[in-house]
Amino acid sequence: MTLPRTPSQTVGPFYTIGLCRRAENALDPDGRELAGMLIDGAGAPVPDGVVELWDAEARLWGRCGTDSSGRFSFRVRGDARSLDGYVFARGLLKHQRFRIEVAELNAEDDELRFDIRMQGENATPFYEP
Amino acid sequence: MSDIVLPDDPAFGPDVQVDYPGYRSTRFRAPDRPLRTLPEELHAVDGPVFGEDALGPLDDDLTQQHDGEPLGERIIVSGRLLDEDGRPLRGALIEVWQANAAGRYRHEVDQHPAPLDPNFSGAGRCLTDDDGGYRFVSIKPGSYPWQNHPNAWRPAHIHFSVFGPAFSQRLVTQMYFPGDPLIEYDPIIHAVRDPKARALLVGQFDLERTEEQWALAYRWDIVLGRGGRGTTPLENR
Lengths: 129, 237
Description:
A: mainly beta; Protocatechuate 3,4-Dioxygenase, subunit A; 9 strands; B: mainly beta; five-stranded mixed β-sheet; 2 helices
């Protein structure tokens, strides 16, 4: 027996009501900062998106809505090697999966930087689910 | 309206068309590069597990979160969370959010000139039970206008966020109400091009679960992909 999967729909513009009721962006409260911008195909910041990160090795999860300038930030384990993530947004009908290899990130003042670009030549690589 | 609601295309199956042109905001936000194949070892990665501490005491009853009761038609929305093989998914976190009965969200961005309800926040959470079951008490959300195209209205809906046991099983979607005349004109539900798949987003009126003299009921089951845990190889899907 195979049941048909329930299709995806966008989180819409009002997702903070349901998804951002608590501060959940610290996977490891004593960890290092990982921050970035969510950027659309016109180069504009996306102020109504939400990013989830999963440190599978340590079983630590976090979520952060983007602010009015499209920025998100997390605290992640200092020795995390890789992180799996999803991005959701108004205008995005299905969340997109990405992967962060921490060693490949730029770090400024110990802050890891990871921008998510939805489109274009420098788009973030997204994976099939 | 022709470009707002495109003709049915069953070839899409359960997949939503992420660059659906009728939903204008997809233009700069839908990925425009081919998706990469997930490395084999990542298919079955476990996802986060949430316990009772993720829940507040009245999180599954959106009508009891304030001093008074919200206005609107009281409803019970329930169903089961299953995987494609029909196995119940237990202990899964389900989060919901919705507009009030007048079609207004308690959100600073919502400018619809409809009243806020001081007794309604519009957010809930629950964990599925041993049978994969969930149940929320709420009020029926109102329809509301939006800016997508001239005279655009969203059909009444409840947003659902679901975490399956595998990371790959994550789902965010919307449940619609049966018989809603606005569904026919809505580009967001029509981005699901297969009419059979679209029908899966519409809850069913459930007379059996109504509570006499108290609340109407809708039933809506949610089916997640196998998340790399099934017996069917990916290429045979």
